[in-house]
Design goal:
Rossmann fold; 6-stranded parallel β-sheet; about 35% helix
Length: about 250
């Protein structure tokens, strides 16, 4: 099989922290200047009726933000009806989420794009079957991980636990993006300072952008708050052999 292109696996500190918005912003930025960017949402739960079609909003957002012309099925190979935990949604439909099919979907896009942005589901560890989860999928893909930190109460604990989980799987945490999802959050600057101290200082993981709360979070508007030089530097490939799951965090 051909190797995956440059890109990243986007995970979040929790569900509803803006992974899709940040993924779309990454696609917008990486697809500039003629580069071919493609978004992939391997597993998407929750379909809505729009213009007579059952569609997933996350899949539609990634498809629209990709510079390549892609179909719904190419962006979202496994779309489930119910907006609940994927393995439960699949069971309700009498389906099984096939790990091999998701990898085939990623490989199918690999030969067509310069940058592949894969959006996970929920947080880093969401069950996808009886004996595997979204962290296993991230390991299968082997892409550097970008962590979306939703700025709200509890984000510090969630961010540090997520960073440890990514490292424990032997993956490279390439960077993190702070996303302002709660305009009423108390002391956001102090929270950012703490995140920079732990993720940036102790874990040596760069911040790739701080996105404020936006009334209209379109990809271009969100991309304007990303640090393009830091992003391109963070996504340069590093052999996984140099990253050990047993390596202690600084």
């Amino acid at each position: 099989m051909p190797p995956l292109p440059r890109g990243c696996f986007v995970t979040g500190t929790d569900t509803e922290v803006g992974k899709t918005g940040v993924s779309a912003a990454l696609l917008h930025l990486l697809g500039a200047n003629g580069a071919r960017s493609a978004g992939l949402k391997p597993v998407a739960a929750g379909l809505s009726l729009i213009d007579g079609r059952r569609v997933n909003e996350d899949v539609q957002a990634l498809r629209a933000a990709s510079s390549l012309a892609l179909s719904d099925a190419e962006v979202g190979p496994c779309q489930l009806e119910m907006p609940c935990a994927p393995h439960i949604a699949a069971a309700l439909e009498g389906r099984v989420i096939e790990r091999s099919e998701l990898l085939q979907a990623a490989r199918a896009l690999a030969g067509r794009c310069d940058w592949l942005v894969v959006e996970g589901v929920g947080g880093f560890r969401v069950p996808l079957g009886a004996d595997w989860d979204s962290a296993d999928l991230a390991v299968d893909l082997g892409l550097p991980v970008v962590l979306v930190v939703g700025l709200r109460l509890g984000c510090l604990n969630h961010a540090l636990l997520s960073a440890e989980a990514v490292r424990a799987r032997g993956l490279r945490l390439a960077g993190w993006v702070a996303n302002g999802i709660d305009p009423a959050m108390l002391r956001p600057e102090d929270n950012l300072a703490t995140l920079n101290h732990w993720l940036g200082g102790r874990y040596q993981v760069p911040c790739l952008g701080v996105i404020p709360w936006l009334a209209a979070p379109h990809p271009a508007a969100m991309a304007a708050h990303l640090d393009a030089p830091a992003l391109y530097a963070a996504l340069q490939p590093i052999p996984l052999s140099l990253i050990s799951p047993s390596t202690e965090l600084p």
